[in-house]
Design brief:
about 350 residues, four-stranded antiparallel sheet, 11 helices, about 20% strand, eight-stranded parallel β-barrel, alpha/beta, TIM Barrel, binds D-mannose
């Protein structure tokens, strides 16, 4: 496996130097942040990330994310043109050494949380989710804003989008995903890039929005649309694992050869559709981190791995989920898990 760390670019307070000091770190996961979804990334911007990373002995082989614009997900009139732009981004990224692209097909919202600074008793804080609180913030019935999403949409625009997706429904979204995959995966294959869809977070529909990358059965359906290795998955333990009905070990075992990117995050269930994010090690939460890694290693996983969201600890303030300290602790824990499991196999 290759241990990586998310880096939000030159303005990220978690600098490349700090990232490079984390033991066994091999590369950054980043993106071009100043182009709107659907636009084409300049080679200059791509090269700039690569060269900055390389100056710190870090590779830039994973992009998270090349966002899929709403018009592709909705199958709007301009979807074919936007899909062509998407393919062009794959070609350009491949040309500069990118080997894996993470993206998602979640309508409107990417991740959703009810709290960004949930206080833990030890003085740390983290992201948390409580369905009752989230439902009370339904932007269709209220003007309450969702934590993390306040500035993203005008309320009128958001309501319109929600209505369009309600009409589209799950099968409509599957259809548009199929159109996208059938155009994009052949290009990825030609460029030797692995596409890795991120599961929906949380993995169920909300506010009437369809969500489809939610269960093992749906992931199997997703793979069957284009049965190529390049049509792969980002296994995100915290996202899929938010539904205790999702057996992560079974999922890891069945799909190991199609999992190109692994997001390791632990969460603790505190009720029905209620959880908080915790430290990465298994005993901190409800996810069997060891079990997931073991299932992957035993089934030949050899992809990229990154610690996902960390708590804010030691007084750190920063981008929610993406501070340095707790993610760095997570990284060394992950490196230890892999070393022990891989050596134990021999
Ligand atoms: C949240 C991340 C997601 C992820 C996208 C991938 O912290 O895991 O925003 O990057 O869903 O497209």
């Amino acid at each position: 496996m290759k241990l990586t760390f998310r880096w939000y670019g030159e303005n990220d307070p978690v600098t490349l130097e700090k990232i490079s000091q984390i033991p066994t770190m091999t590369g950054v996961v980043s993106a071009v942040y100043d182009v709107k979804p659907g636009g084409i990334w300049s080679e200059e911007s791509i090269l700039k990330i690569k060269e900055s990373a390389n100056r710190h002995n870090l590779a830039f082989e994973v992009v998270e994310s090349v966002p899929v614009p709403e018009d592709i997900k909705l199958g709007s009139e301009n979807a074919p043109l936007l899909i062509e732009n998407y393919c062009e981004n794959i070609r350009r990224l491949a040309k500069h050494g990118v080997k894996c692209i993470c993206y998602n097909f979640m309508p409107v919202f990417d991740w959703l949380r009810s709290e960004l600074e949930h206080q833990h008793s030890d003085g740390s804080n983290a992201l948390a989710y409580d369905e009752n609180t989230v439902l009370a913030m339904n932007p269709l019935n209220s003007d309450l804003s969702l934590p993390g999403w306040d500035a993203s949409y005008e309320s009128g625009e958001l309501k319109l989008l929600l209505k369009k997706y309600e009409t589209l429904g799950e099968e409509g979204l599957w259809k548009n995903l199929e159109v996208f995959l059938k155009a994009v995966i052949p290009v990825a294959k030609e460029c030797d890039v692995n596409m890795a869809i991120h599961p929906d977070d949380p993995p169920w529909g909300i506010f009437g929005l369809p969500r489809i990358i939610t269960t093992k059965e749906n992931i199997r359906r997703f793979f069957d649309i284009v049965p190529e290795k390049n049509n792969g998955l980002t296994l995100c333990t915290g996202s899929l694992g938010a539904n205790p009905g999702n057996d992560l070990i079974e999922t890891a075992t069945e799909f190991a050869d199609r999992i190109h990117f692994l997001h390791l995050r632990n969460i603790k269930y505190t009720g029905i559709r209620k959880f908080e994010e915790v430290g990465h090690p298994t005993p901190c939460g409800s996810i069997d981190m060891y079990g997931v890694v073991k299932a992957l290693v035993e089934n030949g996983f050899d992809g990229y791995v990154r610690p996902d969201h960390g708590r804010m600890i030691w007084g750190e303030k920063g981008r929610y989920g993406y501070g340095l300290y707790d993610r760095a602790l997570g990284a060394t824990y992950i490196a230890g898990l892999f070393e022990a499991i891989e050596k134990g196999q021999k």
